Amino acid sequence: MTHKLANDVTDIREPQYNIDDIFYNRWSPRSFSEEEVPNDVLLSLFEAARWAPSAANFQPWHFIIARAQEDREKFYPFIFDGNRDWCERAPVLAVILSKTTTDNGHNRSHAFDTGAAWAHLALQAFNKGLITHAMGGFNPDKAREVLNIPDDYDIQCVVAIGYRGEKALLSEKDQNREKPSFRHSIDEFLFEGDFQQGLK
Q: What's the rounded Cα separation, in Å, for the pair 111 and 60?
C-alpha cells in the first residue's frame, strides 16, 4: 500500500532499505483536532490489535478507553502536565495494560506481546487517517486507583487517538517539537553472531 508522504516526513526520514512507506510515514504528532472518531473506525484499531502475535496465544493486552468528556476527565489527573497541555484536545484516550499472569503463573512475555498489539493499533490508525501518540508521562499508581485496575496488570502507557489538528493549536514549545523523530541506523542496533560483532 502506498500512502501520501507528508513533507515533514520526507524532510527528516529516509529508509536505508526498501520497505512499505507506512513504517516511516507514521509518527506521533501532538496537535489533535477535536473531531470525534466514528465508532467503526475506532474499533477497527482494536480489531487490528486483536490479531497481534502472542506467546502461547495468551493475548495479554487489555485497553481502557475514554471517549465521553466525563471519562476523559477521569484520565487527566494521572497524566503529567506536559502531556495534559496537548492531549486534552484528543477525542479518545486509551490506557494500555498487559496481564502479567496466566493460569500457570507469571507471563514473561506480557509486555513484549502487548507492544506488538500497540504497533498493530498504531499502524491501523495511520491507515484510517488518524494519529496516535503514546505517553509514558503519567502516574501509574494514580491510574491504577482511578481506573480500578487489578494488581496483576501492568500499565504500559496512555495513548491519545484522533485526527491531526493544526500546529498553531500547540504551545510554542510543543510547536517546535511537532515533527517526526529520527531513527538510529541499522548498524547501531543489529548484531550478528554475538553482541560484540556488527553485521557481517
A: 8
Contact 125, 133 (CB under 8 A): no
Closest CA to 75 of 162, 151, 67, 131: 67
Which DSSP letter does residue 179 get? Answer: S
Report the b/e string of 171-200 with b at 16+ CB within 10 A.
Answer: eeebeeebebeeeeeeeeeeeeeeeeeeee
- For the record, the C-alpha cell of 15 comes out as 529508509
- Distance CA(179)–CA(27), nearest Å, equals 8
First-last CA distance in the chain: 31
Locate 66 and state its grid cell.
Answer: 475514554
Task: Quick: pLDDT tens for 158-188.
Answer: 999 999 999 999 999 999 999 999 999 999 9
pTM: 0.94
Separation of alpha carbons 23 and 161, rounded Å: 18
Q: 146 to each of 31, 79, 95, 136, 143, how far by Cα in Å?
A: 26, 12, 12, 17, 5
Cell numbers 495479554 correspond to 60
> To which H or E segment does residue 165 belong?
none
